[in-house]
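Possible race condition, two jobs.
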Amino acid sequence: MKKLLYTLAVATLALFTSVACTNDGGVTSFELAQLEVELDYEAGKASIPYTLESQESDVNVVFGEPSASWIHDLKADKAKGEITFKYDSNCFFTASTATREASFTVKCGNSEELTVTVSQAALQKDPFNLAWSNVTPTSCNFTCTPDDPTEFYLIQQVEKSTIESAIGKTWEEKVYAWAKMMVDADYESCVNGNFPTEAILEKTPDINTAYKAEVEIYVYVIGCNLDGVPFPNAIGLYTPVFPDAPTLTLANDAVTIDCEASQGFMELTVENGGDFGSVVVRSSETWLTVQHNQESKGVEFTASRNNYNRTRSARVDVSYENEKGDVFATTSFVVFQEPDTTAEKYTFELKAVETHWNGVVLSVVPSNKSVKYIVGAIQYNSLVGTYSEDFNALASGVLHSQNKIVLSGDQARISIPINTNYYSLENWYFYVYSINDEESEPSSDVTTIFVEKLKNDKPELAWADGEEVRVPAAGGTLVLGYKFVSVDDPEGLTTTIVEGGAVRLNTYPVGGPIDDQWGLLKRNPPVIDEVNRTVTLEINEYDTSKDYHWVRVGIVYYNKLTDESYGATSIKIVQEGPAQ
């Protein structure tokens, strides 16, 4: 690291500054070599010669408290005729560091009190330049350009209290001790810029506005050598001036409009808004369009006509954010639109005909079969605290649920699949309601039924020939039978296989060849016969060049509707050697 040393050493003046005293204290003459001392920026020890003529042998030199803590350990040596003091370094490059000055007083007996002024130079050349940009209430960018591009720099943020907890008497000592600890503890991961491969280092500190109000936060830059030792004259601590966070205040938290197509307005007050972002408004429903009008200072919205026989609602979210998606303030209000009392009310009869481990077969009879409707399922836990009683709201909430089927009104028997690898078997609501052509809004009241627990008849596959089968050395065709076994059917064959499922080989990749590294099986695809429940494989002739002559083949039941796999099982095929 480049270091500029000041050559202003302590000078011994040719002329002494003297004070002659003939008071009762007995001091006849007390003289200091100088009353002004100039130091360079490094720590050290300074001395000022003095002469003392006294009639009393026990007269002592007395010092006053220095005006700054970087001057300390003041002493007088009668034998050498000098006073000495120590001083700390002034080479920590911070935003406030500059040439500094302090003083202390000295007297002897009843002599006149003398004031010694000490000035210390600072390292005036910056080891790097720092430029700030894009300052927001929660972050900012800064670019660090070092004077010497061959050095390493660490860059991050820190609380002032963390630095104050480091070991050291002075703030500068604490800063250096803390920087050394940072470099020692996490040097590799903290080096965000590795010069000279990158001459400019950019960093955006992540600073929480509310948290920032309680503590003082610095952004720091630490220069260090290849051994991870920080340079004292390349430690920078900077406190950017962050603007106050904006606030958003709405005139009301809700507004109600009639069923007709109409326009509305919600007054919005923005405080502390700046050029770091703007107001953004969003609607939760497509029937309500919204925009922010900066001139009228409010949120304008336009609603389409409510053609349904129930009240509908849409939440309008208002935020102050920038183009990167950083959100600095949020609020919201709700628009309620009254129902059309002349709209036709559709009803449904709904009941569960069959239950299985992965779904329910429903019987649905709509009052109007000329419309489309949605049939679906949702777990009870999804309703707790939100939709436990309001099933019209439930319809809006589950309109885009994965457990739903959109049907025409003339279908009456519906299978609703459920991914039981993800969901439990217990506490399900099944629902039905009609929809409009855009499929964005329920058109009718919701009809629901409750199923406490699905049937636990998840199938398990088993090979009819046990866990191992032997084949002759000549090879040929091997036909293996399989069967379904379930908890609800302990006798053996499951008679009802869930609609949309299939048996497939349990291979990787799916649908690819069996992983047969010994070459026992021919590479032509195996044949799965789901009607007769068999798997047909072609066996190669015994290969004497191979060390192993067996392969394990697996099958699994795969539900194509819910992307679930069940009942995996495998069988070991062993090929017997040729007769000796």
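Job #2 (started ~2 s after job #1):
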Amino acid sequence: MRNKIFLIAVLVLLSLGIDAQTITHSFRNTSMSDALRYLSTATRHYVINFAYNDLEDFKVTADVRKQSVPDAIRQIIGFYPVAMKVVKGEGQDSKGHLLPDMIFVECIQKEDHKLTGRVVDENGQPMEFVNVAVLSPRDSSFINGGVTTAAGDFVIPCKTTDVLVSLTSVGYRRLVRHLTTANAGVLTMRPDAYSLKTVTVKGRRKVEREDRNVYTFSDEQVKASRQGQQLVATLPGLRIDLLSGQLATLSGKPLTILINGIEASDNDLKALQPKDIRNVDYYVVPPARYADAGTVLDVHTRAAENGYATGFDVMQGTKAGFNNTNVYAKYNHGHHQFSLDYRLELRNAPNCDEQDVYTFKDGGKQSTYDYSGTYHFGYANHDFNLKYLFSRGDSLNFQAKFTPTIFTWFWNSNMTVNAEGNPLWQNGTQDKRQRQNSFSPSLDLYFDRKLPGGHEITLNAVGTLFHNNQHVHNIQYDEAQQTLDDDMRQHNNKYSFIGEAAYTKDWGRTQLALGYRATLAKSNYRISNMLSDYEEYKYHATDDKHYAYAQLNGSIAKIGYRVSLGATYIGAPDFSVDEP
């Protein structure tokens, strides 16, 4: 098996079709289930799968104009916590026809209740893109969130109906309501008198394109933001998580941040001055390189001025071992930029109560093990980023990033064991000590070059080492003697390399994208415990994966189209086990 390689897919069409069949339809306060049912009857190329009851409460108000079926679904999903996946049909039916592609649509937040309501302005007109945050009435902690539709509606899955609802929109005063029912009714927002003079620029804040919305910011928004992260957080569907201090989505979908096309972190956003942000591309349909990345933002900046920027923020618990610390610094000189940031997450929680009950049934006989007692746990996560960037505007970018991550964790518990229902079991105690340490440095090299004639070349290489040690010592006693003494130790080393090359060509309304990505990995694993008589089991594995894609998209006579071709090649895992 060591030398065998198998082909998962060679030139498999992930989504092929100049979808001449496009959808044009206006949905007005339609349930998403009914909207999907309409799209399902309007297409022959796709079979749409969804659970009617899960999506029935989500209301859709949208004007779909000459969209392919997948893009139409993405449009009606909007900011809802709903995910879509397209699976290429394989094989043929009994008449020799190719099977249609499958589209799976599902709610990614399944809760007992859904909080619903409508937001209007002072004239009773529906307000779109209002951020709705659901908070705990006890401590105002974030529970969930969403964004209003074109009809001003919001639908937010929620475990409880006793909540605070916080509404925010640029140019309007924040509105907070305490709700005890699942229907919030109609909520009216009032203009912020201080922002009235900026109302003339609201119309140009958003420009809609085929695959993304481009947002700009008013002067008042820029002045009101202390740093770049706060400014970007004013966009629909985004928030700053108060616990971590990081930018996040209201819906819980993963977030990918780019700055001038280069992957970036929250600290990179914090190091930006708000006046340096030109606009933000908010992708509705992510680029091919980030097809599985969730929500994608590309922040475009103005030319950096010479100088430096530094900052820090600290969150410290007063009654518990809780600390979040961020420190960042950036220096610009001409085309060169040097930056360093550090993030610490520290937790230390002693005297925590725990109870675990294990129940076993044998016919009509029931036996239980009841573990109860206290535990002490903590961890420290250190993230470093050291970066050098050479940039000539949009024409040339080269970045080298070194990122070492250090993680330590412990868990100590002392438990009393009560055994019932089995005469062979006896009461006793358990003393358990757990430790984990890991070190994971990585080096990321990124190069992007725009050439005359609409050509662009992107190269990216990432090398990572992951080193991890774990130690678990578990000792148990019954009322008379020691019954267990297991001292387990394991060590893991993993080496990986990811290389990617991409080429794009822009002809105005038509764009071509070609790309290739290779992932190579090798790991070594060792473990010993009482079952192996403390001799080491050794495991070694290697694997590789290659992905190539081509995508052509554009429009002809106001009809949009997209053709995609992809191939995935996976080498059969090469592994071996050495037993003691």
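Residues 32-41 form the longest helix (10 residues).
Logs attached separately.
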